[in-house]
What we know:
By secondary structure, this protein is an alpha+beta fold.
Amino acid sequence: MDWTDTPEQAAFRAEVRGLIETKLPARYRTKLDFSFEEGWDADRKSDDPQRVTAAKEWASALAERGWIAPHWPKEYGGAGLSPMEQFIYRMEMAEARAPGVGGSGVQMLGPMLIVHGTEEQKQQHLSGILSGDVIWAQGYSEPGSGSDLASLQTRAVRDGDEYVVNGQKIWTSGAHHADWLFMLARTDPDAPKHRGISFLLLDRNTPGVSVRPLINMGWEHGFNETFFEDVHVPVSSRVGEENRGWYVGMTLLDFERSNITGAVDARRSLEALRDYVGTDEGAAKSRLASTPTLRGDLADRFIETEVMFNFSFRIISMQDRGLIPNYEASTSKLFNSELVQRMANTGVKVFGMHSNIWERDKAPMRAQFTRSYVGSVSATIAAGTSEVQRNIIATRGLGLPRG
Length: 403
Ligand SMILES: Cc1cc2nc3c(=O)[nH]c(=O)nc-3n(C[C@H](O)[C@H](O)[C@H](O)COP(=O)(O)OP(=O)(O)OC[C@H]3O[C@@H](n4cnc5c(N)ncnc54)[C@H](O)[C@@H]3O)c2cc1C
């Protein structure tokens, strides 16, 4: 397989690099380790005018070319890039650690509205997503409904031209920075579980909506519990037919299924580790000299990273041929999330007791591996657990019977 760029792909890659070189604000260029509270979403709503300016400048630089939504059709304000161009675009953005703009509105809601939304809904919502002005959060999971999402209990009861919503969502990532929520709610409790759900859009500031922080084990505020108490939502904010929301919600696919960002990140982490342990300070703080098996661990991580690149290439080659990756996307997700954890594990082993230091300015490599050791625990849960991915690979990929 020859993965060398064609002349057109090379020209496109140069264009993306050119934009990053000229337009990526210094804040994102120089600061390499952002917590949840310091990324692009948080910058938009920061009290610090410099952070707000950086977020706006980057959003408008991307918006000028439709690159906030590289995968959306041009007629809806996206860039209409081919799957291969999207892949190159994401690879270059990941190499530069340039933050994505627009979050789940760009990745999930927009493409779904283009398929299922009314003209009014498209008019109302697409432009705010594309400019980076309106950020969305996803309200699917509930305390008793994660992998088995169709069992969700949040109720939306029809009252004339409105629904009255009561219930609770959990793990709503970024809801504290979001302006709007998209959610699934039960509109017919008597129907079979997949057939009594509707898909709703609502302004986060609607009376009765409250967002409470959930602090993760790395002491970061990334996700939340979201409560709904007699929240009135106009029927015109329902996407698709009443009780058919499950099928609408499932269209809302993540179009970036290659996980190329994961492969690039893994390679960069290993290269940074190799460079650091080659310095006098790095050699003194690492256990590489005293623990020969660590070299084997590092070699394994290098090999796995190249495998991850090949999983990504497989997905993109399918998308480029008009095929829809299915169990292949699960394979890539599963492998990538477990690689992130193994990488962190190897990194903390390399630095031994130094890995107990959490403060970035005191720890080797600014505590990169210590923090990802803690932060990556959720990688095998979020967006579908590893067990669920394995079920998909087993049944759809290997043709095994359901357990
Ligand atoms: C960092 C993070 C961000 C998230 N962001 C969002 C968000 O923005 N919006 C949102 O709606 N949700 C979000 N989620 C929720 C996420 O989608 C769920 O956590 C996930 O689907 C798993 O559901 P659960 O936590 O209820 O676990 P459960 O489904 O209760 O699973 C518990 C355990 O049982 C296993 N299990 C369950 N079913 C099966 C099965 N059929 N076969 C084998 N094993 C099984 C699971 O693998 C797991 O080990 C986020 C989660 C995380 C960790």
